[in-house]
Amino acid sequence: MEDKIAKDIAKQLKRIADALEISNSKTAIAEKRAVVIEKLQEKNLRADLREKINIDPEKVIHTAPRLEKDDGSL
């Protein structure tokens, strides 16, 4: 009788250990995925900033207000 109880307890403990292992691996995968997503978001933000910073110099020259004095000189 004690053998049967010991075997049942061992089976339950194995199931619990397997479930914990699966849970831990899912958590690790989720953490890795979150890091990858965070890096991609940062990369996108940098690319967006580069797009905003890269301005056509000719457009800037033509649209920039000129600082002139009343007599027309700079």
Q: What form results from the Cα inertia axes?
A: rod-shaped
Total domain modules: 1
Strand content: under 5%
- Residue runs with pLDDT of under 50 for 5 or more positions: none
Helical run tally: 2
Average pLDDT reading = 83
Number of strands: 0
User: What Rg is obtained from the alpha carbons, in whole angstroms?
Assistant: 33 Å
What series of H and E elements makes up the topology?
HH
Distance between the ends: 104 Å
Q: Main β-sheet, in a few words?
A: none
Proportion in helices:
over 70%
Keywords:
single chain; 74 residues; mainly alpha; rod-shaped
Can I get a quick summary?
With 74 residues, the protein is an all-alpha fold.
Characterization of this structure:
With 74 residues, the chain is mainly alpha-helical. The protein has one domain. The protein is 80% helix and 0% strand. The chain has 2 helices and no strands. The mean pLDDT is 83.
Furnish the topology, listing elements before pairings.
Elements: H1 2-53, H2 57-63
